[in-house]
Amino acid sequence: MKLEELKNKKILILGLGKEGKDTFEFLSKIFPGKIIGIADQNPNCKLQATDRKLKRVKWYLGKSYLKALKNYDVIIKSPGVPIHLPEVERAYKEEKITSQTEIFLQNCKCKVVGITGTKGKSTTASLIYKVLKEGGLKVHLVGNIGKPVLNYLISQREDEIFVYELSSHQLYNLKISPHVAVFLNIYPEHLDYYKDFKEYLMAKANITLWQRKNDFLIYNFKDKNVREIAKKTKAKKIPIKDYSKMLKDIGIKKIPFYGEFYGLNIACAIEVGKIFGVKKEKIKRAIEKFNPLPHRLEYVGKFKGIEFFNDSLSTIPQTTIFALKTLGERVQTLILGGYDRGLNFKELVKEVLKMKVKNLILFPETGEKIWREILNQVKNGSELPKAILVQNMKDAVKTAFKITEKRRICLLSPASPSFGIFKDYKERGDLFKKYVKYYGKKSCGEKS
Q1: Are residues 223 and 275 in the same domain?
Q2: Which of 9, 199, 255, 418 has the fewest CB atoms in 10 Å of its CB?
Q3: Which of 277, 284, 252 is nearest to 180 (CA)?
C-alpha cells in the first residue's frame, strides 16, 4: 500500500511488539495528529508504553481486542499475531490487512536484498551486509536481525541498499518481492502457526513469486522444495550448487571460520556481491573478517578435555541432524528437548543411533518424546544410549561434565523451541555457555 493511500484511512496496528511500536512511531511522523488504533491481547500494553505520542491512540486491549478489526479501513498486522483467528481471516478476505514489510517494499525507492529460509537467514544477511559494506556501498541491515524498516522511508536515498532478513510470518500474504531474493532452504517449522507445511511453503515462496525479469533469485539448488519454487519465478535464476568452487574462484581455499556448513551462506553472499559489482578481493576480505553469529554451532571451547558446541538456535530436528553430521562421531553427549510443536523426531533418532551418540541429556517436553521414539527404534539386544532427564541448564551442563570423556564433544542442539524453560534460544545458549565455563574451571571436588 502506497503511503498516500493511508492518509485518509482509519488505521489500526494489530500487535504492539517491536515491529508494532516502530510502525506507530513512523505513522506519527508522517501523519502528525492522526489518531491511530492499537489492538493487542496484552491488557498491560498501555502501561508499558512510555512514548508520549502514544496518548494519541485508541486502545483495544485484552480478550476482546480483535473486535476492533471491523471498525478500521487498514490493519497493519505484526508478524506474531496468528493468521487463523476468525477475525483475522475475515480481515484478510476483506483485503484490509497489510504489514510493515509490504508497506516498506511498496514505498522503497532503493534496492532491497531479501533473505529467507528456515535456517541460516541471520548469518547470510550479516555476510551480505559485510560484503556490500566492504565494497563501499551504502547499505543497511534490517528486519529480524537488524533495525525495523519503516523509519528509513522518511530519509531514503536511491543509492542505498537494504539487506532484509525475512521470516515466513513477514512474507505471508505479500504481493511484492525484493529486487534480489536469497532462498536458503525450507524444513517443516512453525506448524503451530500455519495449517500445514504447504501453507508455510507458500508463505516463504512470496520472496520470489512477485519478482520480475530484471530481478534476481539466488537459491539453494540442493533443496528440492526451494528448487520447485524457483521454477515459478520470472527473475534471473542463480542456483547455488558447488560452494567450494565458488570459494576458490575468489581466492579462498577453505572456510575461514569453524564449520563447513557455512558454505551455502558464503556462496549466497558472494553472488549478491557480484550483482552489485563488488570486486573479488573485497568480497574475499569481507568473508575473512566475518565473525560467525552466536548460538549457531558456536564453538564454546575446550574444558577439562571436552569440546563444547552451542547450537541453541536449532529448533527443529533437521538442524540437529545437520549438526551431528557436521561434527561427526566425536559427539558423545547430546543435549536435546524443549517445547513440543508436534514435530516428528523419527529421522533425528535414526541419526542419533547411527552416529552411536552415547549420552542424551533431555529437557521436557520433547525430551520424553524423543526417548520414546528411541525405544521404538532400538531392536532387541541393541545398546541403548544413556538418557538423563533434567529440568534446567545448570544440571544439564553439570551432568555433561560427569559423563563425557576427554577428547569427545558435548553438543547442545535441542531440535526444539525454547519456550517454557527459557525466555528464548539466546537465553538457552547463553546459560549453556555460562555453565560450561563455570564447571570447566571448577575442580571436581568443589560443591556447586
Answers
A1: yes
A2: 9
A3: 277
**Contact assessment for residue 72 and residue 12, using Cβ atoms and an 8 Å cutoff:** yes
Length of the chain equals 448
User: In this structure, is residue 415 part of a structural domain?
Assistant: yes
Q: Which of 237, 285, 291 is CA-nearest to residue 132? A: 285
Q: What is the rounded CA–CA span in Å between residue 172 and residue 99? A: 9
Do 238 and 117 fall into the same domain? yes
Domain hosting 126: range is 102-289
For the entire predicted model, the pTM comes to 0.89
Look at the chain and report how many structural domains it folds into: 3
Task: Tell me if 447 is assigned to some domain.
Answer: no
Return the CATH number at 132.
Answer: 3.40.1190.10
For residue 88, being part of any structural domain is answered with yes
